Amino acid sequence: MASPEKKNRVTGEVVWREARELVWAHRGKLSVGVLLMVVNRLAGLVLPTSSKFLIDRVLPQHRADLLLELALAVGLATLVQAATSFGLSQVMSIAAQRAITELRKSVQEHMLRLPVSYFDSTKTGVLISRIMSDAEGIRNLVGTGIVQLLGGLMTASIALGVLFWLNWKMTTITLVVLMAFGGVMAAAFNRLRPIFRQRSAINAEVSGRLAETVGGIRLVKTYTAERRERQVFGKGVHKLFRNVAATITAISWVTAVTTVIIGIVGMLLIVMGGRAILSGQMTLGDFIMYVFFIGLVAAPLVQIASIGTQVSEAFAGLDRIREVRGLATEDAGDAQRRPVPMIDGDVLFDDVSFSYVPDVPVLQDISFHAPAGSTTALVGSSGSGKSTMLSLILAFNRPQIGRVLVDGMDLTTLRLRDYRSQLGVVLQDNFLFDGTIAENVAFSKPGATRTEILAAAGLAHCDEFVSRFTEGYDTVVGERGVKLSGGQRQRVAIARAILADPRILILDEATSSLDSESEELIRDGLRRLRTGRTTFVIAHRLSTIASADQILVLEGGRIVERGTQPQLLALNGRYRQLYDKQYGLETDRFINPGEDFTPEPDSPAVAAVQTRGPL
Predict the structure, then answer these.
(1) pLDDT tens per residue, range 84-109
(2) Residue 402 near residue 349 (C-beta atoms within 8 A)
(3) pTM for the full model?
(4) Which domains does the chain have, with CATH numbers?
(5) Distance (Å, rounded) from C-alpha 255 to C-alpha 261?
(6) Partner residues linked to 380 by β-bridges
(7) What mean pLDDT comes out for the span 414-435?
(8) Where are the alpha helices (DSSP H) in 461-515?
């Protein structure tokens, strides 16, 4: 096993490589920025250089005629500095924002291709932080940050050469002091990088919890949990505060050391510079110019400290983004897989076993056949594996043992996009986007015409409630469809599935949020939707699956019974137990435990099925 040091070194090398690739990808704009920076910094040398000319030649010789020329030269250099600074900011800042946009799009595109299990185990705030906050830091790599860093180094190098020319002894001693300062900064940056990395993780965690609190505000208020949520959030932001405080402390140390270094350099200038002037080794103009150029060396070092902190933050963000982009996508092998033609919808589970956690099976030895166009109902107590079976059909997960075949083709060999484009889903808790009702219906078929949208919505009986809205189908439903009732959201979801015209239809408690009147309204729409399609239904209302071609009864991840409803009732087993319990017949069976109870034709259970009718 690799040691932590080796692992960190490898990670650092990878991040540096990615940073170089990012910089190289924007080399055009960076080249323009570097050119502008060079002109800017050279123009900035005119003012300190002119000081020596002013003090040693113009003033002693009383050359008043040269003052205007000197002032014009300084003014022209200042205008060049201003123009190049403006151009540098425009070119590099826009390039940085374009790079951030491209990186965000790239990370979001990759994240959408990750398996559902990743989203199940990762908080929403973390996902948003990876796309929005972490990408923001790269502006310091492809924006003005890195160019300013290069500019500072160039200015310092030129200034250092001039200093050696003016007084090499004093410059050598000053350089030793500045090298010590550079070592302090390097150590500080090495310490700051993990702190910045941790800050993003903490911020994502706190943001995720805040998003959950806001999203579940009705539940929070119902259970008077405001104080608990306030405490949880308080702990999170206090943890973030400690991280920020540690960063501020580290930066403050760098600033303090910088101040000390500047003070030491000032002391050296007073002592050594004063002696050089008194001994005639330097003129007053040389000394003034030396002081200016020392500033040109020290200022970039202070600037490097600030920019270096930003670059460290950018590297930390790249490191986190690399982790996400390094995850295998669920469609990683689609390029090598064969295209999926229009399927019939024949589904076969061949001895399938599955578990989310090793050694904790959720499904065991599941085998059944759902012919094309048939309806298969899944029944069982909570946790028996019904939703997991649907997840396998949707290819959200893959079985560890066995195969799931569609039209004789193993799902693991099919292109996911081709396959899923032929699926339709209506879940118990249906998600609606913050758009109009028409846009949510059309989500399953973006190119659908208004006529197609209205036709699908009519089959789902959306007209009954949409007609009450002033804006009709252009009514905005709000985040997660909060402006609609549960039953209304479910009818929109059914319309969405109808519009998709799927070959395989998944109905997971599709009528659970509907009252009796609404359920009657959409029952015929669901029947039409099921016609000619392979349908899988999870329903706790057993009356709704009376017409299913087969019913699978699951317990403990196994199929314990299978057959049609009359066949399962005749077995007098687990399904019969669930059936009788649902219609309040368990009491009758308890009173006459030895009697093999069969409901009479006019019993409440049979009457309920006849009255409500199957799906």
Answers:
(1) 878 777 777 777 777 778 888 888 88
(2) yes
(3) 0.65
(4) 12-325 (1.20.1560.10), 347-540 (3.40.50.300)
(5) 10
(6) 554
(7) 83
(8) 463-466, 486-500
